[in-house]
TrEMBL record:
Similarity-based family: Belongs to the HesB/IscA family.
Protein's name according to its UniProt entry: Iron-sulfur cluster assembly accessory protein
Pfam families in the cross-refs: Fe-S_biosyn
Source organism per UniProt: Sphingobium soli
InterPro entries xrefs: ATAP, ATAP_core_dom, Fe-S_cluster_asmbl/transfer, FeS_cluster_insertion_CS, HesB-like_dom_sf
Bilayer-spanning residue ranges: none
Coiled coil: none
Domain Core, first and last residues per copy: 16-115
Amino acid sequence: MTTDTKARARPAAVILTPNAEARIADLMAQAPEGTIGVKLSTPRRGCSGLAYSVDYVTEEAKFDEKIETPGGTFYIDGASVLYLVGSTMDWVEDDFTAGFVFNNPNAKGSCGCGESFTV
């Protein structure tokens, strides 16, 4: 008996809105030489424990998730993926502030200043 298995493309860990993709394109257009993409990670910081950090990267790490966007490559830190699965990342600008905004179903709470979250 032969069983055929088919690989199915898995959905990205983080969904990027069109505004987030446009911001990644803007960042890549002004990136320092040698930059290969933009990377999302969740370093330990703040009163609740984890924070969102978006930085330029110059080399791929072995376990990073890679998402190709029209404006450049977006990476998710391999150690952070479990905290981010199912999240949506948006870019929001208003009269007073501009920044990435995360809707993370894994976050169980956040600190009062909004700098960090718990899972």
